[in-house]
Each structure stands twice: as structure tokens, then as C-alpha cells.
Amino acid sequence: MLNRRHIRIKVMQSVYAFKGSESDALNKDQKFLMQSLDKAYNLYLLMLSLLVELQKKSEDHLSKSMKKHLATEEDKNPNRKFVNNEVLQFLLHNEALQDALETNKVKHWDLDDEYVDIIYKDILASELYADYMKTKVSDFKEDKFFVIDIYREIIAPNDKLFDYLEDHNMTWVDDFPLVNTTILKMLRKLKPTANPKVVIPDLYKDEDDEMFAVDLFKKTILNQTTFRKIVEDRTKNWDSDRIADIDYVLLIMAICEIIKFPSIPIKVTINEYLEIAKEYSTPKSSIFINGILDKYVKELQEKNELNKTGRGLM
């Protein structure tokens, strides 16, 4: 689920928050980093379980309508197309999902059901819902497209939901776009005969990615004095107060990758940190960072000190 850029962002936040020195034990800070990465997985489960709760909300609404004292014919014989949506049913009865929710103790909607209600009412008021409910029957394909549409158009952009997630866990703000992309990608690939475990992705693509997070954090912190000196030597004409703190962090992380990670191509490293700078730092930061890194790489090449192995890594 996590890609390398998101891992770099999490490491950036941990390095930025680090207040110790190179000689300090990193166990506590490393634990915080790994917990931050794990919480992205919890957010994925939480958002997926929201779809289940919406189905339950609809079922409950229809049940109460049928029991009304002055129930109309429509109340007594409601359109159950939303309730019976095959994708929502697949999630509702998915044991792999239920086990993951239980294991990770993701039960937020039990206490914060009002947010489920907000989303449910927005769905009922939407043209997407009106068009979908014009008929009483559908197939898996139509059901899937409907769930994708309401997730993309109603759930993901909901400001109240976003505020709730931000208040509950600040790191989820950065995880939200990744989680939404992962869920939509999963839904698009979903088939009626899919293995239930298809909805539960691995947090890391492989062990290398998990180790990359730990190694990048440790090597950046343990060599930060050296890396900062490299930056300072190449910014002597700059007032240090003019260099954003986040730019320093991105530069020393990029230099760490260039020096300490021989299998990562130079272009990949530079491009990744330029993109992160565009999102997290000042408008001119990416130009500044690119200039420093480009100059430093050329110096290493001239001295034949660029330690990169494999083809196409320059």
C-alpha cells in the first residue's frame, strides 16, 4: 500500500520532529516513525469500514420505515438496491476485513456514528443515488461503479469527515490521499469471484521498503552533522535564516540517499525530493533544492566518488 514517496514523507516528518543529537538512542523516535506508518493502514481500514457502515445504515433505515405506524406502500416495499449492492455485501460479509478491523481495534464508527449519518444523508441527496435507484435491479458492474462514484464524489471530498480525521489523528491528513487512491484502485479491480483477502493489502510492497524507512531515518539522523556541513558549504552566500527548516531536512535526506543508498538512482532521489518540496515547503524550495543537489552530484562525479551500483543509476 505504501509507496516510497509516502515513506519518505513520513521519515521527513520524523527527522523534522527529532530534537536529539547523533549520540542519542533512536529507539523512541524510530518507534514513532513505524507507528506513524502503521496508522496509515488503520486509516485504510477505517475508510473501508465506512462503506460497510453505510450499508448497515441503509438497512436500518429501511427496517424502521417498514415499521412506521402509517407506513406507505413504498415504505412497506422499498427499493433495496443500495442495501443489496453486491460490492457493499462483499465487504459486509468479508471475514478478512472483519478480522483486520478487530486485530487493529478499528471501531471508530461505533462511537462516532454521526459522521456515518452525515455521509449517508449526502448520498441520499445526490444525483448519483437518484440515478442509481431508478431501477430495482443491477449487476456487479453497475454496483461497483456506483460505489466508486460515491466514494470519489461524496465520501473523499467531505469536509466534515476530513476535519474529523484530522482531529482524531494529525498524521492522517497526509495519509488520506494515499488511502483514497488505494481504495479506489482496489474497487476498480474487484470482481464477484475475488478472494476476500483482496481488500486487505500489505502495508509495504516488500521487506526492502520497510527496511528503507528505518535505514533512511537512522542514517539521516546518525550523519546529520556531516550532511548539514555539506549543505552549509554550498550555501555560504545564503543567509541561513532564509533557508526553510523543511528544506534543510529534505536536503540532508536527499544527500543521505545519494551517499548511503547505492542502489537508488540519482534521478529518482532528486525528483522525489523536489516533488515533496513542492507540496510541503515554499514555492521556490524545489528550485533551491535542485540547485544544491545538482551541484553536489556534479562534484562527486568529478571526483569519481559517486557510489552507485547497477545500470542506469546515475
From TrEMBL:
GO CC annotations on file: cytosol
Statement: the UniProt record of this protein carries the keyword Heme: no
Name listed for the protein in its UniProt record: Transcription antitermination factor NusB
Family membership noted in the UniProt record: Belongs to the NusB family.
Residue span, NusB/RsmB/TIM44 domain: 206-298
Species for this entry: Mangrovimonas cancribranchiae
InterPro entries, sorted: NusB-like_sf, NusB_fam, NusB_RsmB_TIM44
GO MF term set: RNA binding
Pfam families: NusB
UniProt KW Transcription regulation keyword: yes
Biological process per Gene Ontology, one example term: transcription antitermination
Annotated keywords: RNA-binding, Transcription, Transcription antitermination, Transcription regulation
Organism classification: Bacteria, Pseudomonadati, Bacteroidota, Flavobacteriia, Flavobacteriales
